[in-house]
Amino acid sequence: MIVDAHHHVWDLSVRDQDWITGPELQPLRRNFTVTDLRPKTRAADVGRTVLVQTITVPEETPEFLALAAESDLIGGVVGWTDLTRPDVTDELARLAELPGGAHLRGIRHQVQGEPDPEWLLRPDVHRGLTAVAEAGLVYDLVVLPHQLSACVKAAADQSGLTFVLDHLGKPPIASGAQEPWAGAVRALAGLPNTVCKLSGMVTEADHATWTVDDLRPYADTVLEAFGPSRLMFGSDWPVCTLAATYAQVLETAVELTAGLSGSEREDVFAGTATRVYGL
């Protein structure tokens, strides 16, 4: 059974996804539901998924937890809460008590949108990250390459918290450049409390012309740096549909990991996510 460690859903009748701007993103301006996802996961032999926050509003996480409670597909939720709020410990406890609260596995913030490249190192954020660790949750990192150095410092300061790097840290695949991204990723991987998602690559490449060979240097870098036991597959559906179908994303990940042993592939496609998110 495959675990998809990263996907989203949204309903525009509930609230707008205000990040969907410009003509390139317009194909995402419609509803994407668990019902839409289910036939794709069934065809791909995906038995469990992790539903990940999309926008930074407090209402989204309770909604996602309720979805997980009703679904045999969603095994865990990575939600959002304001890490800087003084009562963040109480808020995390409240979320855990909501319907579906047992599915809360992690917290994520859109750090990639923060103008301060060292936002993760702010004292109030540090306090919030400590609360995440004390709640038994993990912290997903959605960051840009220039923010990776702060991720390294934060992970070193928070040795009791597992940090999950989403989308390889968004390397500039379309340009073909690897540095300074690769060096920063290796530094992050040097810390034992870090893992990485093999996700989001097709949308960092040229959407229309990407090939597996375009992605391979970046996949090889994280495979070498983190190792299969700290790497997990994620589709990033439906964002991935800008460049590939759900099936193509999975097939590409299988091709990129073809040189691994059977047990190593088991880690990437199920074991790591199951362990890290406690599915």
TrEMBL record:
Single GO MF annotation: hydrolase activity
Keyword DNA repair attributed: no
Amidohydrolase-related domain: residues covered: 3-279
Family matches, as Pfam families: Amidohydro_2
Keywords, comma-separated and alphabetical: Hydrolase
Family stated for the protein in its record: Belongs to the metallo-dependent hydrolases superfamily.
The protein's name: Amidohydrolase family protein
